[in-house]
Amino acid sequence: KVERLESQLSAKDREIATITRTEAKAKAGFKAQIDKLQQERDEFQRMVIGNQQVRTQQIHEMKKKEKEYIKLQVF
Q1: Which run of H or of E encompasses 20?
Q2: What pTM value is reported for the model?
Q3: What pLDDT does 56 receive?
Q4: What phi and psi values does residue 55 have, to the nearest 5 degrees?
Q5: What's the DSSP call for residue 1?
Q6: Could you give the 3-state DSSP secondary structure of residue 25?
Q7: How many C-beta neighbours within 10 Å does residue 20 have?
Q8: pLDDT level of residue 75 (50, 70, 90 thresholds)
């Protein structure tokens, strides 16, 4: 009976080791996926900021040209 219990204990130890390795692999995969998604998010955020800056510059240029146009109409 003791040998059977020791055998079962050994089998459970192997099962725990297998599950622990599987869990570690899954965690590593999730970490890599999270890192990739964060990099993509950062890239999109930089693009949004860049687009906002371009838009702000275009609005500024448009207002400047409108003022010049108004000045030309006065004369």
Answers
A1: helix 2-74
A2: 0.63
A3: 97
A4: -60, -45
A5: -
A6: helix
A7: 10
A8: low
What is the reported pLDDT for 23? 98
How many whole angstroms from its chain centre is CA 31? 11
- For the range 19-26, what are the long-range contacts, defined as Cβ-Cβ under 8 Å and sequence gap of 24 or more? none
Amino acid at 6: E
Q: What is the pLDDT of residues 29-71, one digit of tens each?
A: 999 999 999 999 999 999 999 999 999 999 999 999 999 999 8
Instruction: Please give the C-alpha separations between residue 56 and each of 43, 62, 63, in angstroms, as whole numbers.
Output: 20, 10, 11
Tally the residues of the chain. 75
